[in-house]
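The material for today's practical consists of a large collection of protein records. An example says more than a description, so a record of this kind follows:
***
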Amino acid sequence: MKILAIDSSAAAASAALAEDGKLLGEFFLNVGLTHSCTLQPMVESLLRYAGVPIRDVDLFAVTNGPGSFTGVRIGVSAVKGMAQPLGKPCVGVSTLEAMAFNVRDTDSLICCTMDARRSQVYTALFEQRAGRIVRLTPDDAVSLAELGERLRQAGRQTVLVGDGAELCFDAFRDSVPGVRTAPQTIRHQRAASVAAAVWENIDVLPLRSAEELSASYLRLSQAERERKEKMEAEYK
């Protein structure tokens, strides 16, 4: 099975192609360019260099949240646009779960984090058991203080993964023993891990049509929050 995976949920963007669990290639950029300008050229170049026509892709995968509202929408829309004309299935993968595959060989608690602004992070906890990634907590949006308390209660060596790793490390290193960040080279969200997550869970993941694929944001967008706050203020 050939899987084309993309991630544009945060500042970095990437595209990866895998076949039966083997990574054939990956393009990764973390230079602050607009995802709507970079994703499609990355996909086209990846398929061309791999010698795989897009019609030969069996499954399209994308991180469908949490993350940047704009970034997630771009990624989901890109996959829908590629899969729909071909009638191929799609799958949405939790951004946080995919990141856990960056460090799947560790014996430490895996804390996946993304900066959600307003002193909050998107987060979920995972661990490796018998060579497989096992989810311990659901995806959540919590304050830095609350996540720090969760890690203190866990009382384990912990590796922080994701674009929120450095933020969390700075907040916790004096109060949570055993916390460290993943190496810079494998810290950020990347499409290769999306493909790995799909392949490992292919028997249980719900495959969708392009029309059914949707985003999972966890919380309201900034515009929606501001509108809600304004309406609440008007009715006080």
About this structure: The radius of gyration is 18 Å. Confidence is low (pLDDT under 50) at residues 221-232.
